[in-house]
Amino acid sequence: MIVLPILAPLLFAIVSLVGWSKPAYQRVVGIVGAVALNGVTLSVFAQVRAGGIQVAQVGNWPAPFGITLAVDLFGAVMLQVSALVALTVAIFSLSGIDDSRVKFGFYPLFFVLLMGVNGAFTTGDLFNLYVWFEVMLMASFVLIALGGERAQIEGAVKYVILNLLSSTLFLSAIGLLYNLTGTLNMADLALRMPEVQPAGEVTLIAVLFLIAFGIKSAIFPLFFWLPASYHTPPVVITALFSGLLTKVGVFALTRVFTLLFITDFAITQPILLVLAGLTMVVGVLGAAVQTDFRRLLSFHIISQIGYLLMGLGLGSAGALAGVVFFMVHVILAKTALFLVAGLVERLQGSFDLKKLGGLASSRPWLALIFLIPALSLAGLPPLSGFFAKLVLVQAGLELRSFLVTGAALGVSLLTFYSMTKVWNEVFWKDRKSGMPALRRAPVSMWVAVISLAAISLLAGLAAGPLVDVSLAAGIQLADPAAYISAVMGGIGGAP
């Protein structure tokens, strides 16, 4: 089953190519493929939840000699939430992507991107992690420039240059690590790393991985490419990127720093916590001064990455559970907010906050839909953001990391301020005279936005099961013995 999250997007990418010049056909394939992917990922999640870590050795070559696919609970959660985001984006794209971009290959690229994302969540060795990153990034390179508008090309150049630098550093770190250990299977590396000498070289490689994945995750001070590029493509593409791409970088950081670089934790922990605090603060301050809806939300992507980095830096089972919970929350909330921005632009013809207004009275349902992910992002109860931040704050207080915990609480207040700013400008203030009449938004846009907001609301109101899954995933991450055993000795076996 764990091969299917990779094979299903590949299959639908091929099927969508059959009708390259037929937008209606491609849109149907997009919806059918996204629904099928949700069925696949739900089955994988149920299998992992019931039977533990699932492993497939490609070609029946035993680890560490062959290609390993392994899905633990964290990976299964990421597969499922990514599939949910893909489905809502596919629904929104029925009207949110014009026919010319569909003919240029939006849907094949959409599925290739998902294949790369799912490959990164399921791979069990570092070189194939690099391969799946490149598959994902090649699709994203084209998507961000799809349509060829001037602003898109400018944003795409920045995006490509920084991500190519990241890939170069990633590949260099892989080469250095292979030189030291003779293996790239992550479970095998976890067994060998404690004996690797000299320890200083291991620390250097850990820092290289931090920089490489830090660029992909948009952490401080490597974030500037994101707000310079994410606001340039159509909002459908931006929503997909905001929900998935930086989160894959954080997933990779979490994997290597909980599995490989455990002996260096005394050195890397302070670095991670300092970077977490700075990422949170700089991101939210950048958002506070923006007047473009998409750029404001782009800076909030950076700010929320800081919370994930905080949980990784704290490193306890409770903190890592917070990472899992927060990951689900922020993927749902950020994607929903970008889709709301797209719906606002469809109604009023602009992303400029100064040119918007009056939607609370004219479209009260949209105002309510906006408030759910916005207040969740700020951490207000009983929404999912409150519980996600509560788990992280509790872990920070237990470990007496008061500075980064205080920063997390302060950034929540500033996030509330910037969401209030959007509310005042877009929804609460009166429409200025001379503004064009409101346009109609297609049903597919409303369905996508309402569905994602409802899922985000449910994640808070029914937080108990999600907390249980997050705690189980956090325990697996904090103690990788079960992962190592599953990969090296078969499920339930000994290494």
Task: Outline the structure in words.
This protein has 495 residues and is mainly α. The chain has a domain of 216 residues. 77% of the residues lie in helices and 2% in strands. It has 21 helices and two strands. β1 and β2 form a beta hairpin. α6 packs antiparallel against α11, α8 packs across α21 and α13 runs antiparallel to α18. The longest helix has 32 residues. 58% of the residues are buried.
Quick tags:
2% strand; 21 helices; two-stranded antiparallel ribbon; 495 residues; 2 strands; single chain
Layout of helices and strands:
Layout: H1 4-18, H2 23-51, E1 54-58, E2 67-71, H3 73-96, H4 99-103, H5 106-122, H6 126-145, H7 150-181, H8 186-192, H9 199-217, H10 225-229, H11 235-259, H12 265-288, H13 293-314, H14 317-348, H15 359-362, H16 364-378, H17 384-398, H18 402-428, H19 443-461, H20 463-478, H21 481-489
Antiparallel strand pairs: 1-2
Helix pairs in contact: 1-2, 1-5, 2-3, 3-5, 3-11, 3-14, 3-19, 5-6, 6-7, 6-11, 7-9, 8-21, 9-11, 11-13, 11-14, 12-13, 12-18, 13-14, 13-17, 13-18, 14-16, 14-17, 14-19, 14-20, 16-18, 16-19, 17-18, 17-19
**Helix tally?**
21
Strand order of the largest sheet: 1-2
User: What characteristic shape results from the CA principal axes?
Assistant: globular
- Please bin the fraction of helical residues: over 70%
Q: How many β-strands, per DSSP?
A: 2
Low-confidence stretches: 490-495
Mean pLDDT: 92
Indicate the structural class: mainly alpha
